[in-house]
Design a protein that fits this description.
mainly alpha
Length: 87
């Protein structure tokens, strides 16, 4: 998009996203990505596929929670460093 400012390009992208979401179910659009994300944790906890399904799903959920907790901890550390606090 020659001649467009970065702000205009962002608005055009946002307009396209809103138009798409107005025409389609957002859960359908992101279904395959969400399934791939979930299956990554299943594979991480049971790479050989030997666990019973119920146990694999339980462990995958714990791995997913650990992942997001790890992200939250890193975020808190970055916010603390940015604020200048060292405690």
């Amino acid at each position: 998009m020659p001649g467009r400012t970065p702000g205009e390009r962002r608005l055009i992208g946002r307009l396209g996203a809103y138009t798409m979401l107005a025409r389609h179910d957002p859960l359908e659009i992101t279904r395959s990505a969400r399934e791939a994300f979930r299956s990554k944790f299943e594979h991480d906890v049971d790479p050989d596929g030997v666990l019973p399904l119920e146990e694999r799903l339980r462990r995958a959920e714990m791995a997913r929670k650990a992942h997001f907790t790890r992200l939250a901890l890193k975020s808190a550390e970055v916010r603390r460093k940015r604020s200048g606090r060292q405690s």
